[in-house]
Amino acid sequence: MSDGLASDLITPDAGASPLLNQNDLSILKASPLTRLSFRARETALNDAGTAFGVPLPVKPLSSETGDKRAALWMGPDEWTLLAPEDELQSVFEQMESGLGAHPHALVDISERSDAIILSGKKAVWLLNTGIFIDFSLEAFPVGTVARTVFHKSPVMVWRVAEETFVVEAWVSFMDYVSGLLVQSAQELEAA
Amino acid sequence: MSQPFRTEKGGRIDRSQQLTFTFDGEEMQGHQGDTLASALLANGVHLVGRSFKYHRPRGILTAGSEEPNALVGVYRNGDQTPNLRATQVELYQGLEAISQNRFPSLGFDVGAVNDRLSMFFPAGFYYKTFMWPKSFWDKVYEPVIRAAAGLGKPPKNPDHDHYGNLYAHCDVLVAGSGPAGLAAALAAAETGAKVLLCDEQAEFGGSLLTEANATIDGKAPADWVADAVAKLQAMDNVTLLSRTTAFGYFAHNYIALVERVTEHLPTPDPKLPRERLWQVRAKEVVIAAGSIERPMVFPENDRPGILLAEAGRTYLNRYGVKVGHKVVVATACDTAWQAAFDLADHGVEVAAIVEMRETPPESLMSIAKARGIRVEAGCIVTGTLGRKRIKSALLGRLMTSGQVASGGQVDCDALLMSGGWTPTVSLYSQSRGKVVWDADKGAYVPGKSVQKERSVGAAKGLYGLQATLEDGYAAGEEAAKAATGKSATITYATATGGEAGDGGTLGALPHDRNASRVKAFVDYQNDVTAKDVKLAVREGMQSIEHIKRYTTTGMATDQGRLSNMNALQIASGALERPMTDVGLTTFRLPYTPTTFGVFAGVARGDFFDPVRKTPSHDWVVDNGGVFEDVGQWKRTWYFPKNGEDMHAAVARECKTVRDSVGLFDASTLGKIEVVGPDSAEFLERMYTNPWKKLAPGRCRYGLLLNDAGFITDDGVIGRLAEDRFHVTTTTGGAPSVFATMEDYLQTEWPDLDVWITSTTEQYAVAAVQGPKAREVIAPFIEGVDLSNDAFPHMSVREATFCGVPCRLFRISFTGELGFEINVPRRHGKMMWETLAKEIEKHSGTTYGTETMHVLRAEKGYIIVGQDTDGTVTPQDAGMTWAIGKKKFDFVGKRGLERPDLVADNRKQFVGLLTKDPKVKLEEGAQITTAETPATGTPAEGHVTSSYYSPALDRSIALAVVKNGHALDGKTLYVPMPEGSIPVEVTGTVFYDKEGARINV
Amino acid sequence: MLLVYCPYCGVSRPETEFSCRGEAHIARPADPSQTSDEDWVNFLYMRSNSKGVYVERWRHIHGCGRFFNAVRNTVSDEFLKFYKTGEPMPDLEELAKEAGK
Q1: How far is the alpha carbon of A73 from chain C, nearest alpha carbon, in Å?
Q2: Rounded distance, CA B893 to CA C33, Å?
Q3: Which residues contact C26 (CB under 8 A, 6 or more apart)?
Q4: Domain B867-876+894-999 falls under CATH 2.60.40.740
Q5: pLDDT tens digit string along B746-761?
Q6: B728 - beta bridge partners?
């Protein structure tokens, strides 16, 4: 984890036991975060980046990380901004004041999703049990973030290191997502 | 001695590993590396099943997945999997297999009487024999046919196994690992391309594992295979999948493979899936599916002991099994001669080579002569003798007149036949490619590629080891280049031997037998004979597609790979049209039978679909609540107390809400945050209602239409600030409302500065409803004056609940004083438990969706999707009050003015009261004006909602009725099987018509 | 399962990430009140539903959320072009000719 992107932000939930702990694969619940949905036109991006502390990526499917901040490209006018849980109020206010007259929408979605951290040699294999995306490093390099579908659930996948992924799903879908990941990983324990 | 037909040595089986298995309870021995078919043959067992229709004894015909006869059931986890091809079932210690479609036993089968009654089972017999009397179909014909015909029995228990899924991407997918496939994989891999090589068999190598008389780069073919596989295995860019069938080729180079992971293991680790579905997106595909040998269509060509020639050779060279001790080889092409020579070299007596051609190649004749094999050229087989196994073959000599003269009889215990070769074009055909007739090859071969694929080697009718290898290498290079742009210097292997042969025949052979008494099978599995195909033509079938359906030829599990060409030739002869004019049926997926388990994958049990739960879920479980499924959500339906049934629980909950207070989980309601300077303008355009003048802190009921003018959703919308609205939608409508809003924003009004964000799961929502609602929430709410004056009905405030920030709405879906508290999701459990405890102090109740439905129906509030069905306008629903009359436009405004929507006779939303208050109507029941309408009378409308109302102590109902608004006080009828129910049309508000209770 | 290219994400993704929303370039009349009943019905319901080259709206619903347009051959399922919402409809004959080569 220590070498991954945003390792000061995406941390395992110390209070939760691992969902899966194998030699080549672990699944850990991530700690709560501040998550903001930011929507605006391109003209607002510079000011938004300054206010947030890291620039907002314009390259599709990419992310920017900085000191306890991460900005994830979700769409051409949509970003997810990540910050520590206790900075919700301050980041929200900084953004609102920094954006001035730029039309925009800033919405608190901190509680909408849960995140899990998937690490290990078999992480790509496991993701591919339910996601039809090529996760080779050429096609999905470190830093890539994408919303997609895992079996029947919408998810977001963010590659924070070669073998580490953050997987987010809306809270009510997470039992399904993590449950299926854990179930599918069982065969790796077979003799 | 055990395994009397096993060779002394040779083959790829591990003779040091003796395996015991049973077939129909009889214990036998085989070796590691055997298939069930090869092990049975080693034990001298040819009779393995009874045919579908005539219950004729049938033996193993092939050595591959196209096997039509040797379908067996194999036990696993105490239940049997039916219809597995014995030629594909790998032998393991303790394997238990059974034959199928026989009673009481395989050797003595009473169903075999069908064979002698076959005049009653001609082509199309389903369509003609059992047409009359009609009532006999269900009761007599179908049960009898079902009992007598068919294949295996379905398993009785739920599937104990689990099935995996894996999505994969590759540059080059190679399907098939014979010489062409291996060469293609080697060449593509050498360029660095990501290669996936799959083969349906346990071992890679395809025909090379059978080939004993050739060399590749100076090595025996099987050794070359081993080296090639080892080389591929060592490469990171190569994935090798044995026991893996490419069974479906879909659009955009999407290929489905099924990998049999544990089926071949005696005691599989339960953690492993039985099978795995691979869903592959390949940039380029190489189809190296090979070709299969064609049966010869002569009378009694289905007797056990009759096999395809190459299958006989495969059993000999690969499995070390002799198909018989005295073998006749009947052929029309060169390749089968090699089978005869190999058998002879293993000490099997080859009784005769019966060669259809008048002058077979001299080279073959001389080899036969050297081995002392009798050759009958210009001869064919005209019949066979023997009961459960062939005893002798009848020969016929082809005369120049076209007649056949008897050629005597040759005793044998096995007969190998070859009518030539048919390229396997199934995958190509599935890729939507059109096959073309190649007259030189006498075969349909792949035509132009429709997708990014190419067929190689025998799959396109190219034979000969050297040519096939070259073709494979070249195709591999070409595919890799097309996929990645990369190439490499590839060294091609060179082969000696394995030359291509000539010859072949199509269709039914002539004979000198009594045509009405003998059967020559075209489609073994479906018991279709040459006569059936001719009969179908005589009865008017012109198209091969019709002939196929009428006779069922080509509808077997091999998709007609064995039978199609012969059937086509017979049809073409009967139609007196060239074969190319008759057409060819389409090869459909799956290539070989594929289990339902593989298709279902993980979508079963708890993971069939996501189960979405709200934060109150655990509390509800602990407190005995009953859930109902609302889409993917689990919502609490009702909370039975002290053994109450649903009716009692709902009555109590309803009464308690109206008398004191109730607590309801409304978390599943859709929530959308609409933010930006143009928010009000946007909502103005989306919803029927006006929004610009709504003050921050106030709420309004919003009605959403589609552009046709019909109601699609509704919900309360609160204005949090000038540029921020909190929109609620129905539970089921949340995704579609969001998508509709995005659609209009992105494509119709991209100039608006407004954005929408789904916050459905950001908040947990508790509804507290009833006269005591204010007292219940007051202790926990800070930051809001809750008095009626300061915080009136239809207001919203930001506040705190137990110190947690919340959005507090004063709204009601019950007609009582009501609040809905939105807290960040994580605090939902705390909120629910706090309120559940608090309502007890006020003799309140938690309530579920059923009570919610009753309470709203008492107030006449619609539920979109229950009281509306996509054809109801606001006028129909009596909701014109929700329409902003002065608005320039909104979604649906123009639609509402269409003539159809303002016409008379529209069905309008009304209340119904049964004359007998105890009678509750059925939802969906039809409504008529006449008490006993004549049959065929159209209904005036139907009941949309119906409940027992505790507040009124009688039944109530809502309905849509033609011109209903004008029928107030009139009597209508709801005709039911038990009699017609008289009802009175009323308004839709049954309780507290003045709405006083809401504003306290 | 088709492979669909999203012009906003710049990648091809499986069909399951998308929803197809029917024929493209059907504009909602700017002033509906001035639109005749017949024109409104045409806008609501009438689609060319042609066999062959067809222009469709797709939404990357489980991706970036954007609507975009795609030219698809309804016979072969081949996509001939993907382009962003707001961009003009390409010359279909030209595209079909290109694809036929």
Answers
A1: 9
A2: 8
A3: C43, C47
A4: no
A5: 999 999 999 999 999 9
A6: B671
